Amino acid sequence: MTLQKRIWDLIVLAIFVFAAAFATAPWFAFRALKAAAQYEDVQAIGELVDFPAVRRSLTGQLIADAPAARPESPSIWRDPLSVFKKAIEPIAPPEPKVDRYLTVAGVSALTRGYAPGKAPPAMTRDGSLTGQVRDTIKGPYPGIAYWDPNRVRISVKRPDGSGKVTIFTFERKALFTWKLVHIRLPGDERQG
Description:
Elements: H1 3-38, H2 42-48, H3 51-62, H4 80-88, H5 104-111, H6 129-138, E1 143-147, E2 151-157, E3 165-172, E4 178-184
Antiparallel strand pairs: 1-2, 2-3, 3-4
């Protein structure tokens, strides 16, 4: 075999390895997010998640629809007692529903396909090689719902067989760096 043929084979192999690494990088980012949430590695989660973008996406899904006709504010001339009652009511904002999704436990539950607070306790992992292979084969498996060179959507089906799917959208920030920018919740978990 000539030197030119070996160099050409190395170039083709390098292109193949680069393409495979580029195509699978979002899947590895999801796996890293899932492992970081499982082991409560807050710094790794911070590097893998664009929190302002995810907060905006979840807030849009969790805000209850505003009523079509809002009641008119009380008027001091028509109903002075209601005006005073409204004035002395405590002005406390409602608890943000997004916060439970953006905790370590919430991210861990979401990556496993469950709603925060509704996931069964994580099983203790067997550290041996056979235990890791058994856990990997057992599933559930994340699927690629959409792949684009700059954006990937990874779907996670709920293991209880209900057919509910959570979609994680990762966006490419650098050549091999992907960040979570959006989480789409199953339909029945939205609006509250």
